[in-house]
Amino acid sequence: MASHTEQSAVTVLGLGPMGRALAGAFLDAGVRTTIWNRTPGKDRELVERGAVSVPSPEEAVAAGGLTVICVVNYDAVDAVLRRDAVTGALKGRTVANLSADTPDRARDTASWAAEHGIGYLDGAIMTPTPTIGTLAGVFLHSGPEQLYREHKPVLDTLGGTQTHLGEDTGRAAAYDLALLDIFWTAMAGYAHALAMARAEGITARELVPFAKGISEILPWVFEVSAEGVDSGDYTDSNNPITSAASSMSHIVHVSESHGIDASVMRAAEGLARQVIGQGHGGSGFLRVTELLNPR
Ligand code: NDP
Question: What are phi and psi for residue 205, nearest 5 degrees?
C-alpha cells in the first residue's frame, strides 16, 4: 500500500505530446513529478514548471510513487521497462501504462509485470492533449481494482472522467480500439464526403452545419440499438437495410462518376448486400454486426 507521500508523487516516462500533457497536469495539481524521455531536450518547459528531470528510467522509477508510462506503443514500453535496471527498480511498485496498443499486448505486459513483482494497471486516453487536466479528459483503466483504488487519487489529478472497466487487463485497450474504430471509420467517411461534396461545388464550410446535424443522429442510434444488438434482434421497420444499400449505391455511383475512389462505401454496401442475400432485407443496417461476428 502506497503511503500518502507516495500517492502525491509520480514518475512520467515518455515526453511526447501526451506524456508532456500528463506531466503538466500532475505539476498543475501539485504532484511531485519526476520525468524521463529517451531523447533528451523535451523536458525544458516541464523543468521550469517544477518537474525533476533525470537521465535514466531506472532513476525516474526510483524517485517513488506511481510510474506512468506514455510512449508510442508497447514495443516502446518494452524497450523502456524490460531492462534489468528498470525492472529491478519497479519491483514492489506500480506502473500505469497509458500508451496505446492491443488488448493482447496489455495482457502480456500484465503477465510480465506479475512475474517480476510489479503492480500493473493498463489504460487508454480517449481525448487529445488539450483536454488533459480539464473536465473534458476521458481516461479508461483496467487491471486489479484494488491497485486502481490505491492509485486513483493521483490519477484523478489528471482531471476529466476516470473509469475502471474491470480486472481483465486487456479491457481498456479493447474499448480504445472499438471507440477508435468508430472514430476512424467516421473520419474516412467524412474525408470522402468532403471530396464528393467539392466535386458537386459544395465547400467544407457550407457542409459543416449539416454534417454536425447528421453526426448528432449517431448517439441516438447507439442508445436505441444496444439491447437489440446484444440480444440479436435487428428489426428496424423504419430503416431497412435494403433502403440503406440503395442510398449507399447512389454515393458510390456519384463519387465514381467524378473519378473519386469509393472503396470505403463500396465495402459498406457490400456488407449490406450480403445481409440482404442472407434473407435479412427487413433488418436494420446493424445486422452487419452479426455477419461480421456471428454469435
Ligand atoms: P507518440 O505516439 O509519437 O509517442 C512519442 C513518445 O514515444 C516519445 O516520448 C518517444 O520518445 C517515445 N518512444 C517512441 N519509441 C520509443 C522507444 N523505442 N523507446 C522509448 N521511447 C520511445 O506521441 P504522444 O505522446 O502523443 O502519444 C503517446 C501515446 O498516447 C500513444 O500511444 C498515443 O496513441 C496515445 N494518445 C495520444 C493522444 C494525443 O492526442 N497525442 C491522444 C490519445 C492517446 P522520443 O522522444 O525519444 O522519440
Answer: -60, -40
